[in-house]
UniProtKB/TrEMBL annotation:
GO terms for molecular function: serine-type endopeptidase activity. GO terms for biological process: signal peptide processing. InterPro entries: LexA/Signal_pep-like_sf, Peptidase_S26. It comes from the Archaea. This is S26 family signal peptidase. Keywords: Membrane, Transmembrane, Transmembrane helix. The chain crosses the membrane at residues 330-352.
Length: 376
């Protein structure tokens, strides 16, 4: 394999990784490796359409003042994912603000951002985030192209546009996989044409593994615990979480789903927190609210209560997920991975078949010239 071909394969592989991360991020409703902004609220740090490296919040470490985070907003921009900078931290809650905005999000009505609502953090090098110019413009344009291609499929088959978009994307993935693996298996110095094989079974395995990893990340990364700071005081006082000793008050807990697949969430409270609804089913591109009762101990002081969330993609019947969750929190993850992996594997197996596709490689300029001379 020549160096030129290696570079070509590497470039195609990186392009595939970028496209896959952006598409999976759109499907799951949270950044996966890469994120982007669509407005100018973060200027001059991020221009509209700029992209950035996005680390999942679960592995990003402590959130500090100055960090740029992507969180699930409730009021900013009408709700949904928002990328702003943390300007203040207090009691496990964060005040956020766009670099170009004169006021904080909280001054505009957004509740303080909790760790549970942060889905990604933009890593910084020397105090500056890693900017990928116009990445978001490409992502939005690609999404529009996919939607345009999916509409005729949807009209012809009666499938929802989101489902048709998935089939179109799978077709593009097959084409890209063929492009990545169909050339360069023989040494360039060979004079004679040779058969070049495309290992279709390996393509199926790689694509299936990538999908399963993305699905697992969509269920594992958003899971975690949301913390509530409680001040047990001698008497109730204005302000969040200031509760008279031995008394309790209620707070809202939001389960947001920015993806195109419904999710099933299981909530459990710590010693000083109890949830009104232990299982919440959230439809695609929507959110659900439940109530958390926070109890102050008899002794005054500062305490912490937590609500833990386990999240699963609702691709299996909810009753099945219920029974698996009782066995172990990881049991639904394994079952869902096996189900989605089997579907993807079967789809690619039927589409591509098995074995190797053989084709003659006789298109090198040297080989063509030699054959022409022999003919003459």
């Amino acid at each position: 394999m020549s160096w030129g071909h290696r570079v070509r394969v590497l470039c195609l592989g990186l392009a595939a990784l970028v496209v896959a991360s952006l598409f999976v991020g759109q499907v799951l409703g949270q950044p996966v490796l890469l994120g982007f902004v669509e407005t100018g609220s973060m200027e001059p740090t991020l221009q509209p359409g700029d992209g950035f490296i996005a680390l999942p919040a679960a592995v990003a470490g402590p959130i500090e003042e100055g960090d740029v985070v992507t969180f699930r907003a409730t009021t900013v921009g009408g709700g949904g994912l928002t990328t702003h900078r943390v300007v203040e931290t207090q009691g496990g809650q964060f005040t956020t603000k766009g670099d170009a905005n004169p006021f904080t999000d909280q001054a505009s009505g957004e509740p303080p951002v909790t760790r549970a609502r942060i889905v990604a953090v933009a890593p910084q090098v020397g105090g500056s985030i890693l900017v990928l110019p116009e990445l978001g413009t490409v992502a939005v344009g690609s999404q529009q192209v996919l939607d345009t291609a999916a509409r005729p499929v949807s009209q012809a088959t009666g499938l929802p546009v989101a489902t048709a978009r998935g089939f179109v994307t799978v077709g593009l993935a097959v084409g890209l996989a063929l492009a990545l693996t169909s050339e360069g298996t023989g040494p360039p110095a060979r004079d004679l044409a040779r058969d070049v094989g495309v290992n279709r079974h390996r393509i199926t395995q790689v694509v299936t593994a990538a999908v399963v990893v993305a699905v697992t990340a969509a269920m594992v990364l958003p899971a975690g615990a949301a913390a509530f700071e409680i001040v047990s005081a001698e008497q109730d006082a204005p302000g969040p979480r200031v509760i008279e000793q031995g008394d309790s008050e209620q707070a809202n807990y939001t389960v947001a789903n920015g993806g195109v697949v419904p999710v099933v969430s299981y909530l459990s409270g710590s010693e000083r927190a109890s949830v009104a609804t232990e299982r919440v089913v959230t439809a695609a591109r929507s959110q659900q609210q439940t109530t958390v009762t926070l109890s102050a101990p008899a002794e005054t002081g500062l305490y912490r209560a937590t609500v833990s969330e386990q999240r699963y993609l609702a691709v299996l019947p909810v009753g099945v997920i219920d029974r698996l969750h009782v066995v172990h929190p990881l049991a639904p993850v394994i079952a869902i991975d096996l189900w989605i992996g089997a579907v993807v594997y079967g789809l690619f197996r039927v589409t591509l078949g098995t074995g190797r596709t053989r084709r003659r490689r006789a298109d090198r300029p040297g080989a063509v010239a030699r054959r022409l001379r022999r003919y003459l």
